[in-house]
Design brief:
The protein has one domain. It contains 8 helices and 2 strands, in the order αααββααααα. The protein has a two-stranded antiparallel sheet with strand order 1-2. The N and C termini lie far apart (49 Å).
């Protein structure tokens, strides 16, 4: 009886191991879920809970992780989970680049904060990341991500090959949105701040005795904050579009569209 029970436990462990690897890898890099506030203990509990809920919905293969084929499959599942998270992290990268670009135009590039996930970033980048995280949760992005995770086990079952070459090419093409999306978010403010700087240059030429460093920097910062306040609605709409585009591209990469 004890031998039979031990065999059942080992068999159950072998089946639970494969989905948990993919889920754990996704939680390491997924937006919001990968922040330092979500501790390792919470991630382990969350990963095990998701694995337990998903387990009855899919037929799992019997693979031994100690064999060569099993070790390759461990790498495949971890890589697939990480790639799924990186697709959405492109949006976070666009928010950081947009904040850095606007901060440079406003003269706030030296006003930085230490983000435990990103590193030393300007205050505006941190602000955009927080706004983007709130929009992600408001859109139900965490629910959409879990839905795509479940669909990924059906479209790319355990034991099959990784993403196709077309999917990898689409992933590389989507990564360019990190820079294009950052420019899209920052361009309106950059154009207006450029006009402000041109105006300050004209004033300096008209009044050479005016100390541009004493007047220009405060004026640029105040003008930038006012412009940010006025355009925040449009920026939030663009951030929402970026998140939805990220989920759409993730579905294409997984072969769901």
């Amino acid at each position: 009886m004890i031998t039979l029970l031990a065999a059942n436990v080992v068999e159950l462990f072998m089946e639970l191991l494969w989905p948990m690897i993919r889920i754990s890898a996704l939680l390491l890099v997924a937006p919001v879920l990968s922040i330092s506030a979500v501790t390792l203990r919470i991630r382990i509990i969350f990963a095990f809970s998701l694995t337990w809920f998903i387990y009855p919905l899919v037929d799992w293969p019997q693979l031994d992780p100690t064999t060569a084929q099993g070790l390759v499959e461990v790498f495949n599942q971890a890589a697939l989970g990480i790639l799924m998270g990186l697709v959405l992290q492109v949006v976070v990268g666009a928010l950081v680049i947009a904040g850095q670009t606007i901060a440079n135009s406003m003269g706030l590039s030296m006003a930085t904060m230490m983000d435990p996930n990103i590193g030393s970033v300007p205050v505006l980048s941190q602000f955009f990341v927080l706004v983007g995280s709130l929009i992600f949760l408001a859109l139900g992005g965490h629910i959409l991500l879990l839905e795509l995770l479940l669909d990924s086990f059906r479209m790319i079952p355990i034991g099959t090959s990784l993403l196709s070459l077309n999917a990898m090419g689409h992933l590389i093409a989507w990564s360019s949105m990190m820079f294009a999306g950052g420019v899209m978010l920052a361009l309106p403010m950059m154009v207006i701040l450029l006009a402000v700087n041109i105006g300050l240059g004209v004033v300096t030429r008209a009044a050479p005795t005016l100390n541009i460093f004493a007047v220009g920097f405060p004026a640029t910062i105040i003008a930038g904050l006012l412009i940010l306040y006025v355009t925040m609605g449009a920026i939030a709409a663009r951030i929402q579009w970026l998140w939805m585009a990220g989920f759409s591209n993730l579905r294409m990469i997984l072969g769901l569209e």
